[in-house]
Specification:
About 35% of the residues lie in helices and about 15% in strands. The protein has about 350 residues and is an alpha/beta fold. The protein has a single domain, classed as TIM Barrel. The strands form two sheets. An eight-stranded parallel β-sheet has the order 2-3-4-5-6-7-8-9. A three-stranded antiparallel β-sheet has the order 1-10-11, with helices on one face. Helix 5 links the parallel strand 6 and strand 7. The radius of gyration is 19 Å and the shape is globular. The chain binds (4S)-2,6-dioxohexahydropyrimidine-4-carboxylic acid (DOR) and zinc ion.
Length: about 350
């Protein structure tokens, strides 16, 4: 007998949909699995004004088709105007704002150079109930790349939580034991998203038989002890942890390069990957919370109507999606043990 699980239609609380041809290629994959998604604003140039966000939303709607609701975010810069944040939030354009430390990752050059520059903006967001989404890594070149998330907690995040106790903060794509512990111990205003790759891979995957650009993302995958801690957090049933794929496509040539881009494209089989993890952990009864309930509860949004059913059966993953110079390699080369049935 086939094992199946039916859950409320889920959302992706962290995704990069890009723009132009790439947007048209990848958006349908996210829209196929998720009703809503928090869309990252790190385009070039970044999404810093309400008008840019509204027109980007229109382009996403055109690319994704009926029934998908993109939730837009503001890219925070040193000069952010608190009034622009409130206006976009009041108009229903912006759901949240994203903090990229300058230089931390793809298209973060215009990110924040010093958290002190955000003081007025964060006070405003705290007052209006607009969540802060955080790429939690320091950029100090003295800090080892594998330690940048843990050091960010000490140098930045603890102070943020202390200084803005009512500000909703999502620690995005957590990768370490320290991050999982910090979020679990923090007040109810602090939550975290977790990606499939940080649940499934440790840093050996980067070097398995050679250099593996298609599993390189930021924050970089960590040691096994960290993967296990992040897995335990995801399946714990705690409402502080929810689904955020961080699907971040780059064309093959940009990945397979002497300086390959960070990010992997997991949107096509994201639910399959998460379901496999929850099954392996004997936690399928907590999958719906992680995928469909904890995120809306944190953001103060309703749970979706409708359901999705998955079955325990082999899913094969194509080597590439798209063709020619536009092709991208999806995450999950070996396939998954679950498949979306309906
Ligand atoms: O791996 C990543 N890719 N991490 C990020 O933070 C950004 C993303 C991207 O936009 O490519
Ligand atoms: Zn991201």
């Amino acid at each position: 007998m086939t094992v199946t699980i039916t859950i409320r239609r889920p959302d992706d609380w962290h995704v990069h949909l890009r723009d132009g041809d790439m947007l048209r290629l990848v958006a349908p994959y996210t829209a196929r699995q998720f009703a809503r998604a928090i869309v990252m604003p790190n385009l070039a140039p970044p999404v810093t004004t309400v008008e840019q966000a509204a027109s980007y939303r229109d382009r996403i709607l055109a690319a994704a088709g009926e029934g998908f609701n993109p939730l837009m975010t503001c890219y925070l810069i040193d000069q952010v105007d608190p009034d622009e944040l409130s206006r976009g939030h009041a108009e229903g354009v912006w759901v949240a704002a994203k903090l990229y430390p300058a230089g931390a990752t793809t298209n973060s050059a215009r990110g924040v150079t010093d958290i002190a520059n955000l003081h007025a903006a964060l006070a405003r967001m705290e007052a209006i109930g607009m969540p802060l989404l955080v790429h939690g890594e320091v950029t100090d070149p003295q800090v080892d790349v594998f330690d940048r998330e843990a050091v960010f907690i000490d140098r930045v995040l603890e102070g943020l939580v202390r200084d803005f106790p009512a500000l909703k903060i999502v620690f995005e794509h957590i990768t370490t034991r320290q991050a999982a512990q910090f979020v679990a111990d923090a007040s109810a205003t602090v939550a975290a998203t977790i990606t499939p790759q940080h649940l499934m891979l440790n840093r050996n995957a980067l070097f398995q038989g050679g250099l593996r650009p298609h599993v390189y993302c930021l924050p970089v995958v960590k040691r096994e002890e960290h993967r296990l801690a992040v897995r335990a957090a995801a399946v714990s049933g705690s409402p502080k942890f929810f689904l955020g794929t961080d699907s971040a496509p780059h064309v093959v040539a940009a990945k397979e390069s002497s300086c390959g881009c960070a990010g992997l494209f997991n949107a096509p089989f994201a639910l399959e990957a998460y379901a496999q993890v929850f099954d392996e952990e004997g936690a399928l009864d907590r999958f719906e919370g992680f995928a469909s309930r904890h995120g809306p509860a944190f953001y103060g949004l309703p749970v979706n109507e409708g359901t999705v059913t998955l079955e325990r059966t082999a899913a094969t993953v194509p080597e590439q999606i798209g063709s020619g110079e536009a092709a991208v390699v999806p995450f999950g080369a070996g396939g998954f043990s679950w498949r979306v049935a309906s």
